[in-house]
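Morning F.,

Quick status update on the modeling queue. The single chain you submitted on Monday has been processed. Sequence for confirmation:
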Amino acid sequence: MTSVGGAQIIIIYFAYKASGRMNSKQRIAIFQAVLAATLYAISSPVSKLFLKEVPPMMMASLLYLGAGTGMLFMGLIRRKNQKREKEPNLTRKELPYTIAMIVLDIAAPICLMYGLRITTAANASLLNNFEIVATSFIALFIFKEKISKRLWLAIILITLSSIVLSVEDASSFSFSVGSLLVLLACGCWGLENNCTRKISAKDPLQIVVIKGFGSGLGALFLAWAVDEHISDLTYIPAVLALGFFAYGLSIFFYVYAQRELGAAKTSAYYAIAPFVGVALSFIILGERPGLQFLISLVIMIGGAYLASTDHKR
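Structure tokens below.
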């Protein structure tokens, strides 16, 4: 746990040092990206606890419904007390990206919740860094964002770490199904990050509300279709609250950061989130790492450091 916490502190420190070469808007954007990552990090270990009582699709639904509901109330409060210039609303022009964002946000958390059921929360947290790889590749090849050599090296290290962490039996190269489901979730979120980037100039609060209710209701429909239900309804408020903080507020700050940093760069600063998640997994769930995890951690620290200190646009 000490090594994981130390890794997180090191990454934040070097990210801060790198921010000294940036303008004030970029520094604020970095703070927003780091805050978004820290809030999201709560998700894996706490969701792992709730999954004992809440089925995966229902969990994914409630997390996004909690995000949408919480941000809707924030929007009502903001509208009542608004003194600054109003943010621009989404239009028909952004509809394709908005629909893609919702569909991908239905698929990603469902894959993650099923993956969490059959792998450790620490593994899932560390594998979440693969989202950087997915986001960066999609940003480069589909949306034509520039990626520096430093970020490419970070991508290689993070990919290597993800492969090491996903191998279940090194002698036969069989892969953990739970890890592969988490990686699939990262792929969905990587594409979703780029879709969100395309609408990030619009009101972030509106984006989160639409994302929360659209993805939450979509996942809820799928949960009902496969006859998932919650036996203990007292878990519902707790999962909704987790969704507001770990998804709603996290996405809200993430969208603001994307405006200034772009999809690939913002995702790079998200490299901090898995280390927070791993530390919480050890504290909350009492999970302990094996040799394979420690090897992956060392490689991932290198990749995350390179990603979070890359200051080129």
